[in-house]
Amino acid sequence: MSGLPNSDWQKKLDAWRTKNFAKLAKRGEKSRARQYFETIASIVLMVFVIRTGVAEAFRIPSQSMEHTLLIGDFLLVNKFIYGMKSPDWIGVPFTQFGVSLPYYHMPKLRDPEQGDVLVFKYPLDPALNYIKRCIAVGGQTIELRDKRVFVDGKEYPLPKEGFLSDRPMRPKGLLENGIIPIGAGNADNYGPVKVPEGTLFMMGDNRDNSGDSRYWGFLPVENVVGKATVIYLSVDTETPFYRFWEFIRWQRFLRLIN
């Protein structure tokens, strides 16, 4: 029986192995690359879904909520409680260049209530996020008498860590420019005004230094982004970072927001 010498068979076998192992290795590389891509894509999608509908991080940039919230506080905001919402805007991050989109609102667990600290889209510029406390909801009547807040005739006290300055009192009957609605009085003696249905009356806990519903009007409920729930980090922006132990406000770590 004729055939190739053993050495020739060995060469052909080695060539076949080299050729097929190269294909398998290349296929394995493609498979690993695909796995990496799918993993990264899944993580990005998961983060996007969580940020869009469940929770998102926000930073406090102003003093309007002192001393409940301080400049440099970083918050987690519960977006699920008032109903998950699909994206209503897409554009270039950290700019105002983009387009509005039709959106869908999932069923909510409950409506915003008096006392909730809310993150919302600023009615005069929806590209900005504001944070204030809900003082009254649609159908209720809001009034300020010498800086004291009354809702439906019952006093709504200053929150535990709220703040009033010692600036001079604006007397009753004095009409202040910029107050909404026109003729409602001034920042210290306001109303009485009935909150329209489907809207909220918002105020900062630092009531004398807060640009709120007294100045820009009632907040449409659809502008609400979510409820501020916890401070996960707080930094003292006036302290240099190299003084790390002082830069971090450790006592505010994981503090619940009430």
What does the model show?
This protein is elongated. Strand 3 and strand 4 (98-100) form a beta hairpin. The N and C termini lie far apart (94 Å). The relative contact order is 0.16. With 258 residues, it is of the alpha+beta class. It contains three helices and 14 strands. The strands form three sheets. Strands 1, 2, 5, 6, 11, 12, 13 and 14 form an eight-stranded antiparallel β-sheet that branches.
TL;DR of this structure?
By secondary structure, the protein is α+β, with helices and mostly antiparallel strands. It is built from three helices and 14 strands.
Low-pLDDT regions: 41-54
* Class by SSE composition: alpha+beta
What share of residues are in beta strands? 25-35%
Q: Which word captures the global form?
A: elongated
Span from first to last CA?
94 Å
- Along the chain, the helix and strand elements come as HEEEEEEEEEEEHEEHE
Number of helices: 3
Number of strands: 14
Helix content: 10-25%
Average pLDDT level: 82
Largest beta-sheet details: 8 strands, antiparallel
Radius of gyration: 29 Å
Show the helix and strand layout.
Layout: H1 6-54, E1 55-59, E2 73-78, E3 89-91, E4 98-100, E5 117-121, E6 129-137, E7 141-145, E8 148-151, E9 154-155, E10 190-194, E11 199-203, H2 213-216, E12 219-220, E13 224-234, H3 244-247, E14 255-256
Antiparallel strand pairs: 1-2, 2-13, 3-4, 5-6, 5-13, 6-11, 7-8, 7-10, 8-9, 11-12, 13-14
Features:
alpha+beta; 258 residues; 8-stranded antiparallel β-sheet; 3 helices; single chain
